[in-house]
Amino acid sequence: MPKKVVSGNYAAAYAAKHARVEVVAAYPITPQTSIIEKIAEFIANGEAEIQYVPVESEHSAMAACIGASAAGARAFTATSAQGLALMHEMLHWASGARLPIVMVDVNRAMAPPWSVWDDQTDSLAQRDTGWMQFYAENNQEVYDGVLMAFKVAEHRKVNLPVMVIESAFILSHTYDIVDMPPQEEIDGFLPPREPLYTLTDFDNPTAVGALATPADYYEFRYKIAMAMEEAKKVIREVGKEFGERFGRDYSQMIELYKADDADFIFMGMGSLMGTVKEAVDVLRKEGYKVGAAKVRWFRPFPREELYELAKNVEGIAVLDRNFSFGQEGILFNEAKGVLYNTDAKPIMKNYIVGLGGRDLTVSDIRAIARNMKEIIERGRLDREVEWYHLKR
Amino acid sequence: MNALNTLFGEKKVKAKKLVFNSVDEYPEVPLTLGTTLINFTGDWRTFIPVVDEAKCVKCYICWKFCPEPSIYIKGDGYVAIDYDYCKGCGICANECPTKAITMVREEK
């Protein structure tokens, strides 16, 4: 298999090219810029036939993608933090119109204070927009994630947009080996899009986004809710097929690492889980029976897999590189909610880590492990939410 | 139909109202849930224009000014109002040079 040493951003750009996207509309923002620069380079070099629409803002970028997708094209964009926030309104239009747009969001902290470093709050703040969310741990997963995202999004039972999410700098600007299958094999995995509808069918003119009165709106929301449920099956099927074709299996929406016999596990999303896996290896040598659970898909949320996992462990340390002010870490909040009506009741503690790019190291994870062990032995929490790095 | 210049004519008469009785009957995507052929927009008004043909000089200024447009020209050349769409804004009455159109409070 051809391998390239690329940054996370270049991995995203190559994936978009290999997915044969037809329209890209984007606006540059650090640390996303090199994704769309690379795509522009592909076009300039004649390596890809993509209609590139330079726009004046992220709001317009998403609007242009919506138009392209509604016309039947495979559309792609990328953004980060403030840019994603500016897109917010259009994100609802994309999902409501059931358009399988794929976007890479480079997780970056929201300002103020101004920051360009890794933080998941930007993407998690878009939780309720009807977009699926895939969190990549490494550059390979950025690449694979984009390819799978199109296949899941365009599935006839889904038709919803996907956000593929990577960490600022930790992935976006860090070079790593990425395995890229030959184009014909990718074409076999990802055939051309078959749109559910197209606004360029001039024999059957139609409009999307027109008024629905209280008599009809409700049913369309239900349709989206059901499509999201259906998407879980599709994600597992597509992840399995990806594994069979390319050797990397993504059939699990939560990837488990040494979790089978673990007393407690670390749960989190994105690049920080790479550090966690390394820490698990170290902790195992030190006699800790620990494992890791990496939540790949945050939307749709893998409720069933979380339950299966939670009923077999005594504790879950949820590592949130994000925070919902007035509440707690967002993954922690979701995970607790899933388990409330079940018989799985592990001790759960929330560690707020890495906000605004604060480094999370193996020794940090070891300290968290010591704390979790104490809590489990004592049988009760010291506190529910811990601002782990806080200078005291 | 002796309507000469109504935008919809027979199309409107033939158009069927879409009624979805269960969630399964709905389309997957909120595409055109019926156009204004079935969704009448004239029931929001308080006043309606009434044309006095004795005063009308067929100048069609009202027809030009109607923003909907819900004024059409009949076969005999006089104007008439399509009340399915007229929102009762009163522009026609205001513009009419012979005061052939008066706004009347609609009784329902």
Could you give a short description of this structure?
Chain A: Residues 15-239 form the Pyruvate flavodoxin/ferredoxin oxidoreductase pyrimidine binding domain. With 392 residues, chain A is α/β, with parallel strands linked by helices. Chain A has helices at residues 8-18, 33-44, 58-70, 81-96, 121-124, 139-154, 183-189, 217-246, 272-285, 303-310, 330-339, 362-378; strands at 3-7, 23-26, 51-54, 75-80, 102-107, 132-135, 162-167, 175-179, 254-257, 264-268, 290-295, 297-299, 315-320, 347-352, 385-387.
Key features of this structure:
heterodimer, A: 392 residues, alpha/beta, Rossmann fold, seven-stranded mixed beta sheet, six-stranded mixed beta sheet, 40% helix, B: 108 residues, alpha+beta, Alpha-Beta Plaits, two-stranded antiparallel ribbon, two-stranded antiparallel sheet, 3 helices, elongated, disordered N terminus
Structural notes for this entry:
Chain A: Residues 262-365 form the Pyruvate:ferredoxin oxidoreductase core domain. Chain A: Residues 15-239 form the Pyruvate flavodoxin/ferredoxin oxidoreductase pyrimidine binding domain. The complex is a heterodimer of chains A (392) and B (108). Helix content of chain A is 40%, strand content 19%. Chain A has helices spanning 8-18, 33-44, 58-70, 81-96, 121-124, 139-154, 183-189, 217-246, 272-285, 303-310, 330-339, 362-378; strands at residues 3-7, 23-26, 51-54, 75-80, 102-107, 132-135, 162-167, 175-179, 254-257, 264-268, 290-295, 297-299, 315-320, 347-352, 385-387. In chain A, α1 (8-18) packs parallel to α6, α6 (139-154) crosses α8 (217-246) and α9 (272-285) packs across α12 (362-378). The mean pLDDT of chain A is 97. Chain B has 108 residues and is α+β, with helices and mostly antiparallel strands. Chain B has a single domain, classed as Alpha-Beta Plaits (2-Layer Sandwich). In chain B, the strands form 2 sheets. A two-stranded antiparallel sheet of chain B has the order 1-4. The radius of gyration of chain B is 17 Å and the shape is elongated. The A-B interface holds A 96-98, 159, 196-197, 206-212, 216, 219-220, 222-223, 227 and B 20, 23, 26, 28-33, 39.
